[in-house]
Amino acid sequence: MLEDVGLDDPHVSIYRMLLTMPSADAAELARMSGLPGAHVERILDGLESSGFAARSVSDQARLVASPPALVLRPRLAEQERRLSLAHDALDQLSALYREGATSRHAPDVLDMVLGGDAVRQRIGQLQDAADESVEVFVLTEPILMASPHNIHEERALARGVRYRTIVETGVMERPGFFDTARLAHEQGEEVRVLPSLPTRLIMVDRELALLPLRSNGERSVSGALLVHPSGLLDLVISAFEQSWRAATSLLDASTDEDDAADNDLLRLLLLGMTDGAVSNQLGVSVRTVQRRVAELMERAGVSTRIQLGAAAVRLGWV
User: Fold this and answer.
1) Which pLDDT tens digit goes with each residue over 46-95?
2) Which residue(s) pair with 266 in the sheet?
3) What are 87-143's pLDDT values in tens digits?
4) Residue 24's closest CA among 50, 1, 47, 49?
5) d(CA 318, CA 309)
6) What pairs with residue 203 in β-bridges?
7) Threshold 0.90, pTM exceeds
8) What is the 3-state secondary structure (H, E, C) of 101-163?
9) Which DSSP helix (H) or strand (E) runs through 63?
10) DSSP state letter for 24
């Protein structure tokens, strides 16, 4: 919470305790916090040196908390001043970029990013810079991210950036994918599915598109093309929109727990997943999947899974 002004969580915790007391020594604070006495002494030394606490006049072994406004307001004012200067610099640099963009020649609409690490870094930078939207193609074979955890996406979603992601059907075979997609859906991300996609893609604010590349025979990304505003970017935008319209929504906004469970099951089956893959994603046994399918068929009054799919759409179950 206060890392930017020099206080980590243990320092904040001890400072909070000090604020509630006329004064305290290291032993008292160690008992209250459950931290080792030597550790509390180091924290108090840090609070004293940074101005968040001062020695008691009547007893030098005891410390008194400094008023929060006295120590925090100057620091916050300095941060606001630096942030204002950074915004001014951003405006100036953006103006220079726009001037340069108007004079770009055909070869200049593309930048080459070389190496897997550089591509991953650029993907993070693009998401951190997004103001309005991030649009993504995800192919079955994972060659960029070893983990579904994407801190850049989490930060962007938290500040209101709209994510639209299209994944290939094979992506849903990844362990834990459905749970990850469910969490992202709750945070505002829309996920749709197609049997196949033409390329990997991440596009930000309809202003920049990154197309990761893989060399023949390699199982890792070798570089990427960064596409600037141009006719080529317009083509990428059009391709994404066509794919989005053709794709099937993975998740539904249903809030009823039982309906949501059946909806998830039906959607996964309609997307072509096997009973085994569905059981893995939903965390139930194959027998449970088969039993629930049989129950849904009985409810719909049909005798085959193909008929169930048609009935589910007709009845508004998916």
Assistant:
1) 888 888 888 887 888 888 888 888 777 877 787 788 888 787 777 777 67
2) none
3) 777 777 767 666 665 655 555 678 888 888 888 889 999 999 899 999 999 998 876
4) 47
5) 9
6) 135, 209
7) no
8) HHCCCHHHHEEEEECHHHHHHHHHHHHHHCCCEEEEEECCCCCCCCCCCCHHHHHHHHCCCEE
9) strand 63-65
10) B
143 closest CA partner among 171, 175, 124, 164: 171
User: Both tokens of residue 113?
Assistant: 């990013």
Q: Residue 224: CB partners within 8 Å, gap ≥ 6? A: 112, 113, 119, 122, 210, 211, 212, 213
d(CA 30, CA 47): 15
* CB atoms closer than 10 angstroms to residue 10: 15
Q: In what order do the strands lie in the sheet with 201-204?
A: 110-114, 223-227, 208-213, 201-204, 133-138, 162-168, 190-194, 248-249
Report strand pairing: 162-168 vs 190-194: parallel
Contact by Cβ (8 Å): 269, 278 = yes
Sign of the dihedral defined by the CA atoms of residues 263, 265, 270, 272, in that order: positive
Residue partners of 135: CB distance under 8 A and separation at least 6? 163, 164, 165, 201, 202, 203, 240
Residue position matching structure tokens 């004079």:
103
CA distances from 268 to 94, 167, 192 (A): 45, 13, 12
Beta carbons within 8 Å of 147's beta carbon, 6+ residues apart = none
Highest mean pLDDT among 90-99, 114-123, 206-215, 234-243: 234-243
For 148, phi then psi, to 5°, come to -70, -15
DSSP label at residue 66: P
Q: From CA 310, how far away is CA 215, in angstroms rounded?
A: 42
Sequence letter at residue 219: R
Looking up tokens 């027998």 gives 287
3-class secondary structure for 166-226?
Answer: EEEHHHHHCCCHHHHHHHHHHCCCEEEEECCCCCCEEEECCCEEEEEECCCCCCCCCEEEE
